[in-house]
Specification:
By secondary structure, the protein is an alpha/beta fold. The protein is about 30% helix and about 25% strand. Bound molecules: flavin-adenine dinucleotide. This is Electron transfer flavoprotein subunit alpha.
């Protein structure tokens, strides 16, 4: 079939049950604005053994076209099989741009593709827009330890590829009546040629249960919490609000709480309805990953703490005094 060679592609990562990871659906959002800016369509790429669920989501979240590659060799992610199939698709259709989630999987797949295609990759983007003057995507990502944001263009090679962290963008509105054009491609990779074998899976109990990226309410603790015991107070407030506990890097590096809780440039990017920062100063590497939260509440003893510059509500005070009062008000249903 004829396909416009200037399409923008979004990779829809799936889990082992074949469901779409949120990040792929989120990327359909900038995918739409960027492809429209270039007069293109947004194409979702789904690779897996059973793809129905992910294809239904990609359709409902507004893909114009969905290209599907199915086979038992794609039952779980392997660099060999996925890079082979994705590369074969790119070679056939020559898309202009590709957006991939900056998950463990995406961080493995995207550089393989960029290398095989001899094109550029901007990893871990936190912002995307269209550079009208040059007609390229402008990829923004933290540089020099997060002290400045670099705006990167890929003018000489195609496709231009970027990975974007989960929760940077909101998913588009869902419309189950929306229909996409479905294209199926038969691309197979021999299972014997997959060089990595899964021998055993050891799950990090915390990583399994902590869903910071999907949390509606996050209560985070930093150095001001003072130690592992201080996190009990943070947990109590999170429990009272039905929220999830987050942490600054200092708290994680000090061993007070596991890294699954870390919010920030080297942790997770979050955009909950409510983010409560307790004893966190507001370093740029922390702010970069939580400043898109709908409402930010900061509790800090230092009135000059930078976190107050972005907070919607600031409480200058000792978190060990403020939080119990907070919880009492919640218990009395005053808050
Ligand atoms: P501090 O900056 O020490 O702030 C503690 C705050 O607690 C102070 O404002 C103080 O006034 C307040 N306080 C003290 N006692 C109390 C009390 N009893 N009640 C209320 N307030 C109190 N940081 C991250 O968070 N996430 C990251 O992913 C991350 N990645 C990084 C990557 C790089 C490359 C680099 C260089 C740094 C990174 N950092 C990250 C570290 C970051 O620069 C800061 O050092 C860190 O965020 C500070 O953590 P904090 O706010 O908990 O501690």
């Amino acid at each position: 079939m004829e396909m416009n060679s200037s399409n923008l592609w979004v990779f829809i990562e799936t889990n082992e049950k074949g469901q779409a990871h949120n990040v792929g659906l989120e990327l359909l959002n900038p995918g739409h604005s960027l492809s429209r800016a270039q007069g293109d369509e947004v194409v979702a790429i789904v690779i897996g053994q059973h793809t129905e669920a992910a294809v239904a989501s990609a359709e409902a979240y507004g893909s114009d076209r969905i290209i599907i590659v199915e086979g038992e060799e794609y039952a779980r992610y392997s660099t060999d099989a996925f890079a082979y199939a994705f590369h074969a698709l790119i070679t056939k259709y020559a898309p202009t741009s590709i957006l991939i989630g900056a998950t463990d999987l995406g961080r493995d797949l995207a550089p393989r593709l960029a290398c095989r295609l001899k094109t550029g990759l901007t990893a871990d983007c936190t912002e995307l827009d269209f550079d009208e003057e040059s007609g390229n995507i402008a990829w923004t990502r933290p540089a020099f330890g997060g002290n400045l944001m670099a705006r990167i263009l890929c003018p000489n090679h195609r496709p231009q590829i970027g990975t974007v962290r989960p929760a940077v963008f909101k998913k588009p509105e869902q419309d189950t009546s929306h229909k996409a054009e479905i294209v199926r491609e038969e691309i197979h990779f021999s299972i014997e040629n997959i060089r990595t074998k899964l021998i055993e899976e050891i799950l990090d109990a915390d990583n399994e249960t902590i869903d910071l990226e999907g949390a509606e309410i996050i209560v985070s603790g930093g150095r001001g919490v003072g130690g592992p015991d201080g996190f009990k107070v943070i947990q109590q407030l999170a429990d009272a609000l039905g929220g999830t506990v987050g942490a600054s890097r200092v708290a994680v590096d000090s061993g007070w709480i596991s890294s699954a809780h870390q919010v920030g440039q080297t942790g997770k990017t979050v955009r909950p309805r409510i983010y409560i920062a307790c004893g966190i100063s507001g370093a740029i590497q922390h702010l970069a990953a939580m400043s898109s939260s709908d409402t930010i509440i900061a509790i800090n003893t230092d009135p000059e703490a930078p976190i107050f510059k972005i907070a919607d509500y600031g409480i200058v005070g000792d978190l060990f005094k403020v939080i119990p009062e907070f919880i009492a008000l919640i218990d009395e249903q005053i808050l």
